[in-house]
Amino acid sequence: FTKKTIDDDTWTDLEDALLTADFGPDVTDAVIDELRASVAKYHTTDPADLRRMLRETLEERLSRLDSTLMLTNRPAVVLVVGVNGVGKTTTIGKFAKFLNNYGRSVVVGAADTFRAAAVEQLATWAERGGASIVRPQHHGQDPASVAFQTVELAQREGIEIVLIDTAGRLQTKSGLMDELGKIRRVIEKQAPIAEVLLVLDATTGQNGLSQAMAFIEFAGVTGLVITKLDGSARGGFVLAVQEQTGIPIKLVGQGEKIGDLTGFTPHVFVQNLIG
Amino acid sequence: MASFGNLSDRLATTFKNLRGKGKLSPADVDGTVREIRRALLDADVALDVVKEFTGRVRERALSDEVSKALNPAQQVVQIVNDELITILGGQQRRLEFSKQPPTVIMLAGLQGAGKTTLAGKLAKWLAKDGHTPILVAADLQRPNAVTQLQVVGSQAGVPVFAPEPGNGVGNPVRVAKDAIKYAKDKQHDVVIVDTAGRLGVDAEMMKQAADIRKAINPDEVLFVIDAMIGQDAVATAKAFQAGVDFTAVVLSKLDGDARGGAALSVASVTGRPIIFASTGESLDDFEPFHPDRMASRILDL
Ligand SMILES: Nc1nc2c(ncn2[C@@H]2O[C@H](COP(=O)(O)OP(=O)(O)OP(=O)(O)O)[C@@H](O)[C@H]2O)c(=O)[nH]1
Ligand SMILES: Nc1nc2c(ncn2[C@@H]2O[C@H](COP(=O)(O)OP(=O)(O)OP(=O)(O)O)[C@@H](O)[C@H]2O)c(=O)[nH]1
Ligand SMILES: [K+]
Ligand SMILES: [Mg+2]
Ligand SMILES: [Mg+2]
């Protein structure tokens, strides 16, 4: 937006900016149509107005859903799911610390019994986050039984929050996706599930939508976590995810350190999206 | 995305109205190019690459080779396919081995891209081929990365050089350097160095990767990139090229439904060949990269 008046170049620049931020062609077209209408309606020619309108529309669209975490049950059971390598285990460590800072007691369940050293990795994070951990008795143990034992421990010892780590799985693997349904059912026999958090990596492109659809279907997702926003990726695909699924973003990860997790603030997110 | 229908069908629709017209007008071609542009963006190909690519396709689509073709739609699809394969590297390139063993292979990439898993896959594949590889635990950052590599090594039946515990303890440059000496002593003919995941914008961590490279002078530096990555592929690939100057690319997580436009972006922006595809979590899910298959996948041809 270097010009003094809005012209064709302004619109092209805007389109490029949205596409480069991973909004995807559909959302990009929709946002541009909306802004063209606003510019016509208010008879403005000033690119600064256009920039403000862009910010406002994105913030408004991202604010439509309630991003409050529902953790009032005791124990409040949170299941964390997502594709491989997005940051599930790390998020659990940071989240445990976050809850710990509010005086909540936390136990984490190592229901990723598959990936090499996943249990050890979670144990390191649990220690950093001030949480206790329930480990599988052997490699490859049924993840649902680890989840069961974790909830059981929380009930027995009066631990307030349960965070269950699961193995990464691509949304196209039906056997692995069915396994999530089983974990859910086993937990629900003991206690209602408070939140199912789907972790999405900000570097992801349009595949993020396919991930969200499948995990919603198989795992009953209630909230999104966007990780790796400390990098150069903008994460624009989450706008489409939020709008098409009606599921809000609840947490944001911005680094590999224990404190690098915050709640979701549309204003800050938009700032990161469009600068 | 699947719901959008594949490009061949969409182009066929665009061309249906043109039958019998003979030569394609610039307006006809513009419609076609718009469809191609959209398909590429849906596949996460980087915008700059899309622009350059569609520019070239447009030029060829307006030329005689199309207007004289019996079926202009098919001809344009063919051009698109050819151009894609050209960018993706035409023929395959193999792993470079050193004439003076050991061959040193360093892995680098963003967090969670699939480096440690790839280290195991490569080691297993090379061992099966009669090599005597060793894995090197030079990710001393990520919690329990060293343990993970040890587990992966035992699954691959390959030894792991891991003198430091990691989790923030130990110097990765030192470990990588010592590993080369160790491999020479023990007569391992391939050394595979796993490194911590790092962001393109993290100057300090990028310098560490450059220092590792300098210390071990690898024959191959493999940049591992997740097939699900979006437009950030360009910034990240450029940052790693400037930071560690990788020699080749490995595309991971191709077992999912990501269209993998990143392949085109990275190949086009860096000029480095993609040599392997990682296609699953088990150590056997690994194959040489096929540019022609990738072209079809990107455009759902
Ligand atoms: N820069 C950055 N790195 C992150 C963030 N969250 C996680 N990571 C890194 O991403 C990598 C993968 O994180 P994990 O927590 O192991 O991801 P996961 O989803 O549990 O992975 P799997 O269990 O293998 O599917 C690690 O190197 C983490 O340190 C983040 O917000 N920013
Ligand atoms: N489906 C699938 N999963 C993969 C593939 N390659 C790796 N993974 C999984 O992706 C996750 C991350 O893999 P890692 O090998 O730990 O990735 P990394 O690059 O070493 O991660 P950091 O060390 O944290 O930067 C793990 O859950 C792996 O099992 C693949 O080709 N397909
Ligand atoms: K990733
Ligand atoms: Mg994990
Ligand atoms: Mg690793």
Write the layout of secondary structure elements.
The complex is a heterodimer of chains A (275) and B (301).
Chain A: H1 8-20, H2 24-41, H3 47-62, E1 76-81, H4 88-101, E2 106-111, H5 118-129, E3 132-134, H6 143-157, E4 161-166, H7 174-188, E5 193-201, H8 207-219, E6 223-227, H9 237-245, E7 249-253, E8 261-263, H10 266-274
Parallel strand pairs in A: 1-4, 1-5, 2-3, 2-4, 5-6, 6-7
Antiparallel strand pairs in A: 7-8
Helix pairs in contact in A: 1-2, 2-3, 3-10, 4-5, 6-7, 7-8, 8-9
Chain B: H1 7-16, H2 26-42, H3 47-61, H4 64-67, H5 72-88, E1 103-109, H6 115-128, E2 133-138, H7 145-156, E3 160-161, H8 172-186, E4 190-195, H9 203-216, E5 220-226, H10 232-244, E6 248-252, H11 261-270, E7 274-278, E8 286-288, H12 291-299
Parallel strand pairs in B: 1-4, 1-5, 2-3, 2-4, 5-6, 6-7
Antiparallel strand pairs in B: 7-8
The complex binds guanosine-5'-triphosphate (GTP) (2 copies), potassium ion (K) and magnesium ion (MG) (2 copies).
What would the keywords be for this entry?
heterodimer; A: 275 residues; alpha/beta; eight-stranded mixed beta sheet; 10 helices; 8 strands; B: 301 residues; 14% strand; binds guanosine-5'-triphosphate; binds potassium ion; binds magnesium ion
Describe the protein.
- The complex is a heterodimer of chains A (275) and B (301).
- Chain A is an alpha/beta fold and 275 residues long.
- The mean pLDDT of chain A is 95.
- The termini of chain A are close together.
- Chain A contains ten helices and eight strands.
- In chain A, 49% of the residues lie in helices and 16% in strands.
- Chain B is α/β, with parallel strands linked by helices.
- Chain B is built from twelve helices and eight strands.
- Chain B has helices at 7-16, 26-42, 47-61, 64-67, 72-88, 115-128, 145-156, 172-186, 203-216, 232-244, 261-270, 291-299, and strands at 103-109, 133-138, 160-161, 190-195, 220-226, 248-252, 274-278, 286-288.
- In chain B, helix 5 packs across helix 12, helix 9 crosses helix 10 (232-244) and helix 10 (232-244) crosses helix 11 (261-270).
- Chain B is elongated.
- Chain A binds chain B through residues 16, 19-22, 24-25, 83-87, 93, 114-117, 120-121, 124-125, 170-173, 201-210, 228, 230-234, 237, 256, and chain B through 1, 38, 41-44, 47, 110-114, 116, 141-145, 147-148, 150-152, 155, 167, 199-201, 226, 228-232, 235-236, 239, 253, 255-259, 261-262, 281.
- The structure holds guanosine-5'-triphosphate (2 copies), potassium ion (K) and magnesium ion (2 copies).
- Potassium ion sits between chains A (85-86, 201, 203) and B (112-113, 226).
